[in-house]
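Work Package 4 report. The design task specified in the project plan requires that, given a folded chain encoded as structure tokens, an amino acid be chosen for each position. We show below one input record used in the internal validation round.
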């Protein structure tokens, strides 16, 4: 006896297509969610690397201070006070920026925390300068200076008698504070002894 094969009915085809479309929708939503998580992780990684770079550059700044004064100053057109000091910049490709340079950490109008360098010794009328972005998206910067008597101040005067022992920096980025604390190393004065030959 011959068995006759029954053709697929329209209802069976529709059920099969709906199951396949349901399976594809689950797969695509999982794929989309994975892409979103990867994008968030990449943004977080970039933000973390930028903060680590900022921390390393600031630490290098405070470890390379020379024996001249460290002070805060707000120049025209700036929202907050910047920190100015002379630092030993070490060797640089440009000889003007090698050795001791004037440096300023400040917040620019485009919300970038920057480190700007000027050479100290040059015969040029207009001194060249170099700016490096330390951190972007910075809304506000607050400085705190703690001295030997544990007195904390928001500013550091140019003619201060003593250098601060602790320098705290609070950076507001995306309405969240990032706190740094630095213990600068000031070079000890070189003792010279006079004597008869």
């Amino acid at each position: 006896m011959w068995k006759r094969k029954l053709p697929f009915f329209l209802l069976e085809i529709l059920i099969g297509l709906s199951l396949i479309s349901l399976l594809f929708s689950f797969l695509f939503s999982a794929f989309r969610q994975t892409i979103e998580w990867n994008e968030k992780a990449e943004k977080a990684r970039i933000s973390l690397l930028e903060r680590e770079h900022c921390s390393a550059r600031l630490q290098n700044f405070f470890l390379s201070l020379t024996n001249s004064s460290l002070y805060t100053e707000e120049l025209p057109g700036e929202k907050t006070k910047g920190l100015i000091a002379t630092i030993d910049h070490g060797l640089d490709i440009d000889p003007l920026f090698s050795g001791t340079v004037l440096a300023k950490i400040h917040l620019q109008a485009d919300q970038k925390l920057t480190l700007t360098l000027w050479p100290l010794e040059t015969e040029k009328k207009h001194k060249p300068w170099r700016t490096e972005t330390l951190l972007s998206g910075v809304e506000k910067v607050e400085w705190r200076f703690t001295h030997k008597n544990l007195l904390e101040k928001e500013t550091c005067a140019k003619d201060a008698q003593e250098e601060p022992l602790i320098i705290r920096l609070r950076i507001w980025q995306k309405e969240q504070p990032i706190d740094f604390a630095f213990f600068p190393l000031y070079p000890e004065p070189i003792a010279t002894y006079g004597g008869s030959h």
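Helices lie at 10-63. Validation will be extended to a larger panel in the next phase.
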